[in-house]
Amino acid sequence: MAGRVALVTGGSRGIGRGVALRFAKAKTHLFINFFQNRGAAEETAKEAALYGAQVHLLQADLKDPEQIREIFKEIRRLYGRLDVFVHNAATGVLRSTLELTAKHWDWVMDTNARSLLLCAREAASMMNEGGRIISLSSLGSERVIPQYGAIGASKAALESLTRYLAAELAPKDITVNAVSAGAVATEIWNLVPEGQEILQKIRERTPSGRLLTPEDVADIVYFLASPQAQMIQGQVIVVDGGYSLLA
Question: Shortest CA distance to 233 belongs to which of 132, 147, 157, 153?
Fold first, then answer.
């Protein structure tokens, strides 16, 4: 992976940060996209650079097609190609489905699902054989989680889009896959009512006996980006410590 060019969206915190650092350890040329929190992005970039990676920060709102074009234009200007695109950027509205407004719906779908389509189109145009597109999903794409309707629907759309992109890009030797992660104890849970209590219940119910870490998810993303994953195409890989196995 050394010397390959990788872009991680939403790469400043949580799972995205874990993925970015995993690629940094392999000494990739790393682009980290962030939306608002420049301080967190700079801290992640600083740590990534300690591993010997060439790191570039790209601020962009992925709801905006023009800003999407600009970040890929910058990658093209600096390296002329992209080898790995990791779509991790996501947002959410925690409300019951019937309380969702059109604005809520568009906000979540545009960030979580539409941006995958727009970014994948740009990324694929810059990829040679062996290119990789990997997106992050969640168990809410298939299971009903309270107040998760908008996010769950956006992740279901993302997974379906993954399959369509995979079929269209496979002849170009570009793979497209998704990683569906279980609960990771990131700071987002502090915004969820009774978030810590929910995490404890998930921990107790998980056969592996613990919650996922960002590094657990990053390892799977890194594998899908490797040459060994060439024949994995259009799949959603679940990494949740066995949580989803139980009825």
Answer: 132
